[in-house]
Amino acid sequence: MYSTEFDYYRAATLAEAHQLLTAHPGAKLLAGGHSLIPLLKLRIASTEAVIDIGRVAELRGLTVDGDSIRIGALTTHAELAASADVTRRAQALAEAAAVTGDPQVRNRGTIGGNIAHADPASDLPIALVALNAQILVTGPRGERAIEAAAFFTGIMSTALGENEIVTAIVVPPGQRGRGSAYVKFKHPASGYAVIGAAASVTVRDGVCASAEVAVGGLVPHVVRAPSVERALLGKPPTADTVAHAAALVADDIRDEVMGDIFASGEYRKATAAVYVKRAIAAAIERASAA
């Protein structure tokens, strides 16, 4: 199927992109195109104008400041997965990027486009929430930072305001002895997460000093798992501790769980604890080795 007709514009700078958004209300932004183009071709979405920001140099680059990482919005999944800095400081994000889509998607798709698209079964948002990342956006009122946990609000819905553009993602420095991990139950046809789980755990003096856990693919947006996190804090990182904590994830899934012909909502909710346990166990193993 072909999309409806639209005008195409290519922005050379971020300022020009904002000018074009103002001049063309309702325009869609194009980065890698792996989220937008299928929606347009299937006519799930339509627009009178597409603004290509794929060549805006200001949106590129991955830099380290101390132990925090600033990731430009046009960084591809493949670049994230291959980055030694990301693997060293935010392994959950590198793992999520490595299992996103197929090689074509990973080499063209961008982190900014991925999170702005906000598919509830996407991998990167889950890792970003568990890593307490911040989403930097710019718009008519300047730049602002949005906590990843507050950025994703529903199915393909975010906290982005009108004419705001995702410019970068900042992953804050982790504590000494922190490890992170991402695992997923992969849909065999689409590769999307039927269930995705990410964990970031700090182990110090023989106990879990901090824990952040997030799950996706279950409800319309990524959710934190505070019940799981509380059950880990102050406890020795044993298999029994992890199993008990992971089993509590059902208490944190308050919305109706999505289901389809492949996996019902009841099955996804019942199976979530398995993947949460695997993510926590892997994060603890890395934390202990850090």
Would you kindly provide a written description of the structure presented here, covering whatever features stand out?
The protein has helices at residues 14-23, 36-41, 77-82, 84-89, 91-98, 103-108, 111-117, 124-130, 148-151, 226-232, 239-246, 249-252, 265-289; strands at residues 7-10, 28-30, 49-52, 62-65, 68-72, 134-139, 142-147, 152-154, 157-158, 165-171, 178-186, 193-204, 207-216, 223-224. It has a five-stranded antiparallel beta sheet. The protein has a four-stranded antiparallel beta sheet with strand order 11-12-13-14, sandwiched between helices. Strands 1-3-2 form a three-stranded parallel beta sheet, covered by helices on one side. It is 36% helix and 27% strand. A hairpin with a 2-residue loop joins strand 8 and strand 9 (157-158). It is of the alpha+beta class and 290 residues long. The chain folds into three domains: 7-52, Uridine Diphospho-n-acetylenolpyruvylglucosamine Reductase, domain 2 (2-Layer Sandwich); 57-171, Uridine Diphospho-n-acetylenolpyruvylglucosamine Reductase, domain 3 (2-Layer Sandwich), CATH 3.30.465; 178-289, CO dehydrogenase flavoprotein, C-terminal domain (Enolase-like, domain 1). The mean pLDDT is 94.
Detail the topology: elements first, then pairings.
Layout (H helix, E strand, L loop, with lengths): L6 E4 L3 H10 L4 E3 L5 H6 L7 E4 L9 E4 L2 E5 L4 H6 L1 H6 L1 H8 L4 H6 L2 H7 L6 H7 L3 E6 L2 E6 H4 E3 L2 E2 L6 E7 L6 E9 L6 E12 L2 E10 L6 E2 L1 H7 L6 H8 L2 H4 L12 H25 L1
Parallel strand pairs: 1-3, 2-3
Antiparallel strand pairs: 4-5, 5-10, 6-7, 6-10, 8-9, 11-12, 12-13, 13-14
Helix pairs in contact: 5-8, 10-11, 11-13
